[in-house]
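Can you give me the bound-state structure? Components:
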Amino acid sequence: MVDDLSRSAAAERARTRTFLNAQCSVVYSADIYCMSRIRSRIEASFNAQGLMSTLGAQLVHVEDGEVHISLPYDTRLSQQHGYAHAGAITSVVDSACGYAALTKAPEDHEVVTVEFKVNFVRPAVGERFLAIGKVRTSGRLVAVCTGEVRAETSNQSTVVALMQATMMHVRRDA
Amino acid sequence: MVDDLSRSAAAERARTRTFLNAQCSVVYSADIYCMSRIRSRIEASFNAQGLMSTLGAQLVHVEDGEVHISLPYDTRLSQQHGYAHAGAITSVVDSACGYAALTKAPEDHEVVTVEFKVNFVRPAVGERFLAIGKVRTSGRLVAVCTGEVRAETSNQSTVVALMQATMMHVRRDA
Amino acid sequence: MVDDLSRSAAAERARTRTFLNAQCSVVYSADIYCMSRIRSRIEASFNAQGLMSTLGAQLVHVEDGEVHISLPYDTRLSQQHGYAHAGAITSVVDSACGYAALTKAPEDHEVVTVEFKVNFVRPAVGERFLAIGKVRTSGRLVAVCTGEVRAETSNQSTVVALMQATMMHVRRDA
Amino acid sequence: MVDDLSRSAAAERARTRTFLNAQCSVVYSADIYCMSRIRSRIEASFNAQGLMSTLGAQLVHVEDGEVHISLPYDTRLSQQHGYAHAGAITSVVDSACGYAALTKAPEDHEVVTVEFKVNFVRPAVGERFLAIGKVRTSGRLVAVCTGEVRAETSNQSTVVALMQATMMHVRRDA
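Here's the bound-state model for the whole set.
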């Protein structure tokens, strides 16, 4: 399903940066977007999210229809037993799903979260969390995404949360 | 529905403190909890949630089956357009619903979030947000809560998010 | 919350019919719909739903922002233990929420269900079930509704299911 | 993901029957169930669901962690435009998810639906619908399943609905 989980976040970020610096020279059709331009747009948007910075989250992977965000564990993110709070877990997988939807949205559109549903299937215990958002269907107005959050340690990756979300494409103001 | 929205957060906190300092002397039955003891337990648990402190959230009201949490707006909580991020809004209403469920749970039990669903019905713009969690049904194992988040300014209070959540009672370890 | 649960379904239907036969003569503004015209439109739409007839469901109440549907219990609707199947319960509360949204939609628009979430809080045991759909927020494109299903006997009415649903307004084809 | 969609329902049913008639002779451990015994139990339970018969649904595939149910289209299942009603679609994918969870549940336990969320991503138009329920995580008490419903014609299979559901294991009464 996700074939690059073993890559370090640092390597991922380096790879993403390379793509982000590439210039987009060819657009194949009205439907196909230049991924490098989309990556730049998503990175700029991510950096403008105060909450991602407050939580310490990092954008680590952007591809057509799929986005990954990494969240190192910190006691600042805890619930009362020291696990990561459901709200912190939800924040990163919501952003991952929203940006995944953005890779499929028309160029002059933003994506807003209409609603989501999250199951918390295990206590969120780990050195860091990897949120993976994927587009399942994308229409003119609405996209449906599924997401998961994995708790990671040096030798293990376990699903702790599952999301199903509805995103809407809204035209950007000029 | 909520009859004390106009009270200031400060007044609310003062009132809550009074209750929290009261000693619980009478327990009416095995099923009925001493609310002051529950308030103390919830305040201690809330204070142990690193995320609530990181976000700047405050516990402002605890009654049987209903809990309110206030979240002053700060750019540290924003999404890319400067509104409060869906994840910040979700964090406080999840905690409000969880603690509302705790007021109805057996004394030797904790509450964990099984899952929730949140609709974001308006952009989260306001000076502060008030998350209100309420128990709709509470059984031996499972409680269902509904929550709402209101964006507040000096003269207005508008619903920006609606939650429906499933909470589970789990026995505390000795 | 619902103040007319004690009225019999027959009385409700009689009352609804009266309204449905009334002619709509005055429209107060572009935003305010003539309820009698809406009732007629909803009754015609309900009668065109093959599934409602297959299940034996009846439209019993239509008002601005709220619709009730009644479903008498029958073994044809059961799950394996003889209770009403979650799918039958969901069918009627989905229709109730959809039609509630329709009372608030622009006149030249239909309503489609984008998604819903349902909690089943007690076994669906009763002589009949009353599904109540209510609009919580209604915007230009999207409405959010909450619904509940009550199991009813001659002297009791108990909530067995709770829904939170997202409906979308779509323009009718000419 | 699903490798046997091209098999006809008839062939599937024949294959399932064969398995159901096989005797279960070896149980490898307390945790591992004999699939043939589980298939028999699920077929008996499915046949006891009045609603599945009322809708015309058929159990077509049972394996460890995954169950398929087929629903031929009929105007008796329609909403007002002649498409299959969201409630009919939901009914079959709820049963598929519930029985998928049952393949992973302890032998002396039943499965009940705690809640589900369904996105309707395209109009449900097709000759028949195939509901596929899969277990994503299964713990001692709770299982989380994802489901999809595909609209099928002679040469096409398109996802029309996506479910994420919470199932609970409850001990069977003696």
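A couple of observations. Residues 101 and 135 of chain C are 6 Å apart (CA to CA). Chain C has one domain: 9-171.
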